[in-house]
Amino acid sequence: MGEKMKYVLLSAVLTSLLALPAAAETRLKIMSFNIWGGGQNEDKGVDETVAAIRAAGADIVGLQETRLESDPCTAESCPASGPSAAKAIAEALGYYAYDQTQENAALWANAVISRYPIGPASAHDLGVPIDVNGVTVWAFNIHHDDEPYQPYQLLGIEYGPAPFITTEAEAQNWANKTRGPAMDLLFEDMKQADGAAAVFVFGDFNEPSEYDWTVAAVAAGQQPVKVQWPTTHRLSEAGFVDTYRAAWPDPVAKPAYTWTPRGDELDKEDHHDRIDFAFARAPGLKVLSAAIVGEDGPRTDIAVTPWPSDHRATVAEVSF
């Protein structure tokens, strides 16, 4: 082949490659929100919860506690009761809704609402595919057991029959016993998301983050001991990004408490912490921004008044 012909062919190949459309970028705002009954626990409607989601601008939301707490509600037993508020919230927003009604260790009155159409759920009801303008993403949404609660065990706060503990290893052991079976269900269900453009995991984990209970946080007096919490660590090992800590990596400068906007942070009978998460995994993932949504106050990035829940929410804008 002559040099002239080689040049012609190379030019043709380059021209055809340049003519191909660039891979489209998808941007989404994802939110995890324990809505504390969506107003029902205080005999209210869903308007305040809807206002919070609107203020966050969320496209996909994992909701926890869409139903009422039982009466009585104790550390050992607190089943959900009454109807879910998810449908009413979604209708007010013009969104699609899916109530996760299966009973298992990873669910407590959960639902996914979305600006985009929602497909059939995974086997254990923990996740749904969502069609974002022809791009398939999966949203998984969980609510882990809060008893025994290891921060209380470490701090000597009475909550249920679990013993007090003092070390990282003890905290990890109790956390694995408390939430390991639920995480096993999640990882089974996430196999159905293979090939998706992006996978999100929302939830009230009732367990802190490995990125918040650090040596630096202990030195700052925020935490009693350094702990690599196993539930968040398991997701990190599987390639998921803690979207809030991706945007705000310093837990001392930005503690980001989601539990709780109610009560005094100096109360010796409680411990304020970040236990609500929006994790993301996708090729080419970028976390563009992240915020805590809550009451008007120093722990909030996006303030909504009145604030309807006993948890703050977390929201992030991602692209992939």
Summarize the structure in words.
By secondary structure, this protein is α+β, with helices and mostly antiparallel strands. Helix 2 (47-56) packs across helix 3 (86-93). The protein has a seven-stranded mixed sheet. A five-stranded mixed sheet has the order 7-8-9-11-10. A two-stranded antiparallel ribbon has the order 3-4. A hairpin with a 2-residue loop joins strand 7 (127-132) and strand 8 (135-143). Helices cover 26% and strands 23% of the residues. The model is unreliable at 4-22 (pLDDT under 50).
Given the helix and strand composition, which structural class is it? alpha+beta
For the termini, the CA-CA separation is 43 Å
What's the story with the biggest beta sheet?
A: 7 strands, mixed
Instruction: Please tally the β strands and state the result.
Output: 14
Helix content: 25-40%
What sequence of helices (H) and strands (E) makes up the elements? HEHEEEHEEEEHHEHHEHEEEE
Mind telling me the C-alpha Rg?
22 Å
Average of pLDDT:
93
SS summary, helix count = 8
Into which percentage range does the β-strand content fall? 15-25%
User: Which strands sit side by side, in order, in the main sheet?
Assistant: 5-6-2-1-14-12-13
Low-confidence residue ranges: 4-22
Q: Any idea what the shape is? A: globular
